[in-house]
Amino acid sequence: MVGDLRPTTLRLAICDDADVNQPTHSFDQDAVVELLNVEDTPCVSIYQPTHRQHPDNQQDPIRFRNLVKEATSALQQRLDDTAVNALLKPLNALAADQEFWNCTLGGLAVLRAYQPADRFQVLALSRQEIKLFEGSRYALDEVVRHPDVPRTLEAALGTELTEPHLTVSSYGGVGKQQSAMHHGHGGKPLEADIDAERFFRVIDRALYEHHFRAAGLPLILATLPENGQLFREISRNQFLVPDGIDGNPFALSTEDLRERARQVVQRAQRQRLDQLIELIEQFGTAMAQQRGDGELANVARAVVAGRVATLMVEADREIPGRIDANTGSVETKSLADPETDDALDDLGALTLKMGGQLVIVPGNRMPTDTGLAAIYRY
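Predicted structure:
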């Protein structure tokens, strides 16, 4: 699909779209808002399913090149060849990047509006080593770590690793030559706790800096309960979910780890469903108090005025049109027109830029039949 020629720049995201009702992304909301605030022009959006395994994945770059050709034709209606070639140069380079196409997941997006993540990461943790995985309920793969992320206790602490606990006792009076005697006193459990805490602090910072912050995915901790308690006490990672996998993750196969993680995600999804039901009830209350609306024209004006606290948008629903970012007026056109966008995409982007919350809702859960529902701040 080609479209979204609004005034913003070219943006790229990789996502797993195996479940169309739970689309995914590789940005946190702050990153999306930062991208949406860029005012270069124009923007091209491309979406396609991709494949994990050979030989199916051999067709992916071919399909991608065909979509780039469609984008080229659309851009040539409003730009000269030099501008078109400059804009699409990164996409043509991506089409030729064999390493990239050998590592795709379930879908490629260059870029649609922000949507909630269904992918997750799993941190397998012991007091001696770590492994990081990323995946979905369908598959789990070990992540190639950044070189600055240590994998083992020794790599993390190096020369600062606590040696076997010994004390030095001095004998002799003042003014006399003193001799030293070394005494071991069974301090290894304490030393292990000190080293474990330091190890956890190092990897928490390094993983956040090089993996978690950019991905913005829920992090599931897989470890023994005593390690989990210590790690959660020292971690500053806001993506760490309360529920985890108890037990020794290094005794589990990747498939077993994926299944345990899937159960954690399933519980989290039930919690999200409960939150969605509560949100829908809040919308009903807001409507009764004239602080809610489901009409496109009304909601669009409220969005640009900064009045929308929460916008619910129906998944897989499109309303051909454009939203004037200054006035909120709605112009409806055919999606075949390269100047036309999806009005719901526009509303979602504007809501995020104005500091509101965007929630993608399955069609059978939407409280309106218009494709959108807004709860106003006032």
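Summary: The mean pLDDT is 77.
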